[in-house]
Write a structure and sequence with these properties.
The protein is built from 15 helices and no strands. By secondary structure, it is mainly α.
């Protein structure tokens, strides 16, 4: 039984090309996870304000929300290997520059925000390209599991990232500057893995222009009601359900009597439960209960954030973060898997680029959320975010039920890669 579970859970990793991509992607995710913690610590240490943490996140948000739709079009047009290779090189150099500025004590909030803008711009291209690349490396039957394995890798980095970041920052001779330099070095390995993969061929453009291709992608989503539900649902849950991270440093110092650096422990708690849930759900990504589990994950995230806002101690908050991590990981994995199942392969880059906009929106609202926390309090801000997650999810459930009734007269199995509603 254990052997069967292992084979079902990790089946896509038996594909050597996908395994190489997965390893490089996981290391890149680890660096991204570490950067989200380190940049928050640097920003809060420089100013002591939640708004500064949000401003740094704003740089990445602005770039992602503006560029990501076009990044998906480019990803569907050009060689994905070349696009990802160039992007990863730029990010590695970006971390190197920021690390030098921190070490030399010449970093500023504006410079830090500019670096996250560069990250957001580059990720707007390589994010959709990586996701669409999966569709070229694995067969249709393995698609759901390959998406799940990517989420496993991402969740694994959320476990390792906070611990590794905390260990590096705690050493005086390394600190936050050394952590940035370490992250820059990690991209040397990422680039090496990409050189081991064969080149990918660009697809012929569906439209005569980039804007034409973008309109075709939007039309593809609009023509499939369930796909048109999954994409905005992801945007809403990520925008509200993941923005609490901006407020965490202030919650720790102003409400729970802890140092802002302890946010790494809260991230670790959420990542640990997320990893367990992801491994449990990985073999069920194509199952008949995927929709129910996805909605359940989003509701668990919302409720646990609400209770976090009421926590009286650091340890109570850690328990809630443990639960929130389980909910957020289940939601993200199943939502992305369902999106890839309901979209045609020719549109993967464009469809996933719109989900990338969710992270841009998350960064975009980070600044006003930080300002709200400074004005009204960290607890109150997190509680409002929790309510918004619950409201968005409830609305999506009602729409999903309505769609099921609408298509009840023509039942069909879960769609394949070429299937629609």
């Amino acid at each position: 039984m254990i052997s069967n579970w292992f084979q079902d859970t990790f089946q896509s990793l038996r594909n050597p090309r996908y395994r190489t991509l997965w390893m490089g992607t996981t290391v890149a995710f680890l660096a991204f996870m570490m950067s989200s913690i380190v940049q928050s610590i640097v920003a809060f240490d420089l100013t002591g304000k939640n708004g500064a943490v949000g401003m740094v996140a704003l740089g990445q948000g602005l770039a992602t929300i503006v560029i990501s739709p076009f990044g998906g079009v480019i990803a569907d047009r050009v060689s994905k290997r070349k696009l990802v290779l160039i992007g990863q090189t730029i990010i590695g150099l970006n971390f190197l520059v920021v690390g030098i500025l921190v070490v030399t004590d010449t970093i500023t909030i504006l410079t830090l925000a500019s670096s996250t803008f560069v990250m957001g711009a580059v990720f707007s291209f390589i994010g959709p390209a990586r996701q669409a690349w999966i569709g070229e490396l694995v067969s249709g039957d393995e698609m759901g599991n390959a998406i799940a394995m990517q989420q496993v890798g991402m969740t694994l980095t959320r476990v390792i990232g906070p611990l590794l970041t905390a260990a590096l920052v705690a050493v005086a001779v390394i600190g936050t500057g050394g952590a940035y330099l370490f992250m820059s070095g990690m991209f040397g390995y990422v680039i090496f893995t990409l050189t081991q993969l064969p080149g990918t061929k660009p697809r012929p453009a569906g439209g005569k222009s980039i804007l034409g291709d973008l309109r075709l992608g939007l039309g593809h989503i609009a023509s499939r009601p369930r796909l048109a539900l999954l994409v905005p649902l992801f945007m809403g849950v990520v925008m509200f359900g993941f923005s609490y991270q901006v407020v965490l440093p202030g919650l720790l110092e102003n409400e729970l009597g802890r140092d802002a650096k302890d946010m790494g422990l809260l991230f670790f708690a959420g990542a640990l439960s997320g990893l367990v849930v992801t491994l449990g759900v990985a073999s069920k990504a194509n199952g008949p209960n995927a929709w129910r589990m996805m909605f359940g994950g989003a509701l668990v995230l919302g409720v646990s954030l609400g209770v976090t806002a009421l926590s009286a101690t650091f340890w109570q908050a850690m328990v809630m973060m443990f639960i929130a991590g389980a909910g957020s990981s289940a939601f993200q994995l199943l939502n992305n898997s369902l999106i890839m199942q309901y979209a045609d392969q020719a549109y993967y880059g464009r469809v996933m680029s719109l989900t990338m906009m969710a992270w841009g929106m998350n960064g975009l609202v980070g600044f006003p959320i930080g300002l709200a926390a400074d004005r009204f309090g960290e607890r109150e801000t997190i509680f409002v975010l929790a309510l918004l997650v619950i409201l968005v999810t409830t609305a999506a459930i009602m729409i999903h039920v309505s769609l099921n009734r609408r298509f009840a007269s023509r039942p069909a199995p879960l769609p394949t890669l070429a299937g629609g509603d």
